[in-house]
Amino acid sequence: MGHCHREFLRFASVLAFAAVSLAPAALLAQTSTAKTDQWIHVRVESKDNKGEVVRVNVPIEMAEKVLPAINKDGLHNGKVRIDSAHMEDVDVRALLDAIRTSKDGEYVTVQSNENDVRVAKSGGYLYIHVTDRSGEKHSDAKASTAKGTPAKEEKVEIKVPMKVVDALFSAGKDELDVLAALRALAATGDIELVTVKDSENTVRVWIDSKNVAD
Question: Where in the sequence is the domain holding 148, given as residue range(s)?
């Protein structure tokens, strides 16, 4: 169970990276096939005393023209290079193909002292929910208990249309096709993509037709 658990955590991490990578790429991109003007929004809220909030609102249409010209930090011609699509003998593409051709359902549920993982498919969407409590080992557990909230707990919630997942992994081995994913994403309409919550920050990534964040 421990080995399987770790592999699905790595799988979730890859998809999380893929989904979040749409945000910076959208500082650059959109499809011409979208029915409405789509915007990608990123909001980061700091939970420290300063309470800093960062909002990024970008029209997706900026990207298609600019993205192919960006060649930096693994991004080339609208594609992102990743270390390997095979993570310690886990073939991500084979796994995604199995999910894509399978019926809707909850495929993976892992609960342990350090992590909870849920991978499910429903209505053409892939859901990945991860709760990581491993940071509690490096925190003051007694102080956390007194406050009634877990210390250093991180929650990641990802909702990705399967068409976007397919587009991301359509480039070939060891690459993510961000431009193709943006084209697929723009056709989905309003959607909440990623939410990350931990003891320090809350991060939210979503797409809609508004030119301002909530």
Answer: 2-208
